Amino acid sequence: MLKVEQLHAGYGSLEVLHGISFEVPQGAIVAILGSNGAGKTTLMRALSGLIPIKSGSVELAGKPLGRLSAERRLREGLALVPEGRDLFGSLTVRENLLMGAYTRHSHAEIEHDIERMLERFPRLKTRLHAHAASLSGGEGQMLAIGRALMSHPRLLLLDEPSHGLAPIIVETVFEVIEQLNREEGLTIVLVEQNAHQALDVAHSAYILQGGSIVLNGEATTLTANSAVQELYMGG
Ligand code: ATP
């Protein structure tokens, strides 16, 4: 579904990603793990077209994304749930969901999808007309995921979905991620510092260190790897 080869990207003259290559099979959850400053958010931004790629290639379902804008990438089926969620705080929950569907046209289909989102995220139903700024961290993360799903993505990029959430809420968020994959076959790339949870739901994972992939493998193999345990799972 996604093929990334020798991706170099960064900010101005600062190169943060030094030739990243990885693949995401259709229907898989792939985790990209790394500590603070490893380049995880930069990778998400480069994949979703928010910063330019200096060199290398990104293909979605066989189609090169090249220098396509973020909006064109969204239309191609690549949606990002950004770090910190980036909700429209002064808009309501419903309006945020509608914003997620801005590339689509059928009013009836959009309304139908809002209903589906509210079934999947019942908390949002009770908060439908509340401003997004008033949501709790967990509700906000659900809304950010719901908003991204409203674009009908083929591939969902999640940038640190556990960030800033209480452990019990993190569990719920990861359950949702697993359900979306299992029940709807959604292909997911998950960027996380929280290696425990990420390796629990992912099929395979890549370890990003200083802007390079230093290790990759099946999630179960990496979970058993002593270096991974020591560096990313608190021993
Ligand atoms: P975190 O978990 O802290 O978000 P990360 O793995 O997502 O870490 P990035 O945010 O991708 O890491 O940052 C990688 C490097 O790029 C860091 O050295 C950071 O200082 C730098 N960087 C990030 N954003 C910018 C920016 N807008 N301009 C310049 N440098 C940046």
Automatic annotation (TrEMBL):
Position of the signal peptide: none
Family: Belongs to the ABC transporter superfamily.
Annotated organism of origin: Dictyobacter kobayashii
PANTHER family in the cross-refs: HIGH-AFFINITY BRANCHED-CHAIN AMINO ACID TRANSPORT ATP-BINDING PROTEIN LIVF
Entries under InterPro entries matching the protein: AAA+_ATPase, ABC_transporter-like_ATP-bd, BCAA_Transport_ATP-bd_LivF, P-loop_NTPase
Top-level taxon in the UniProt lineage: Bacteria
Protein name (database record): ABC transporter ATP-binding protein
Keywords of this entry: Amino-acid transport, ATP-binding, Nucleotide-binding, Transport
Molecular-function annotations in GO: ATP binding; ATP hydrolysis activity; branched-chain amino acid transmembrane transporter activity
Any one biological process term the GO annotation gives: L-amino acid transport
Pfam families linked: ABC_tran
Ranges of residues in domain ABC transporter: 2-235
